[in-house]
Write a structure and sequence with these properties.
8-stranded mixed beta sheet, Rossmann fold, single chain, about 270 residues
Length: about 270
């Protein structure tokens, strides 16, 4: 377990949370809560993979291993952290352990709140599309609530989730779009940044110099694109030499083909 930053005030929330699924997103959430100085009365995690669960407990010693999904579902706030094809099966497994007072938050695309409500007794249902940047408590996380959910209860859930970064309510049909253009967005670029750093080192820079050059330029390029007042075409015209310009059409085609196909797969 690691805290990012020093001098954080510890905030103990009088609630218990459970995760069904102990993989990447659960680790991201636990680290984000940790960064924000959030502690809970109890944290239980279930994952059928013993090694995954052991690794999580090693990183976050306060986590209690749940022997079954139902045990994690007995907490006050339950995160469904499994892939879309497993969501409905998971809900069927835990429905007897979920009470009318349980808040269930699904982190998966595709499975709607209406489908969740058809299985679970509680109507305190939430869907969220989380972002990996929640790992540093700077996520961009859209959420949707069960229609008619109590405003006070919604406020409490938003207060919890906002410790992971920017968290905002949106219409449920927009969640899958956010999954494509936000949650998965870093994967379209991270490997390219890494490769540019490698090229920087190969062409004479130190690792530190290459990293600084890429990081600083990216930060300023984002500011230029979004804050300069120029149209996108005008921004792109500021640099006359475009080394991979001949490949832009192919890259755009890959983005359109792959992402629209994925959107069709994950939309309800």
């Amino acid at each position: 377990m690691e805290r990012i930053g020093r001098g954080l005030k510890i905030i103990v929330m009088k609630t218990t949370i459970g995760f069904i699924g102990g993989g990447r997103i659960t680790r991201i959430f636990l680290q984000g809560f940790n960064n924000a100085g959030i502690e809970f009365e109890s944290v239980k995690v279930f994952d059928p993979n013993h090694e995954t669960l052991e690794s999580l407990v090693k990183a976050f010693p306060y986590v209690k291993k749940a022997e079954a999904a139902e045990a994690a579902a007995g907490q006050q706030v339950v995160f469904i952290a499994v892939h879309p094809p497993l969501v409905m099966e998971t809900l069927q497994h835990i429905k007897m352990a979920v009470s009318f007072e349980t808040t269930v938050i699904s982190l998966a695309p595709k499975i709607t709140i209406e489908k969740m409500a058809s299985v679970l007794p509680t109507k305190k249902l939430v869907r969220m599309i989380p972002n990996a940047t929640s790992f540093i408590s700077e996520g961009f996380n859209p959420v949707s609530f069960y229609p008619g959910m109590d405003k006070t209860e919604k406020k409490q859930i938003l207060k919890l989730l906002k410790t992971l970064g920017k968290t905002f309510e949106t219409e449920e049909p927009k969640l899958e779009s956010y999954a494509i253009i936000s949650a998965m967005l870093p994967t379209y670029f991270w490997f390219q940044w890494h490769e540019i750093e490698r090229i920087g080192k190969e062409t004479g820079l130190t690792a530190k110099e290459a990293k600084k050059a890429v990081k600083s330029t990216l930060k300023k390029a984002l500011k230029l694109y979004y804050n300069s007042g120029l149209a996108p075409a005008e921004v792109m015209d500021l640099i006359p030499v475009k080394p991979i310009g001949d490949n832009e059409i192919d890259i755009l085609d890959i983005l359109d083909t792959k992402l629209m196909a994925l959107f069709a797969k994950i939309k309800p």
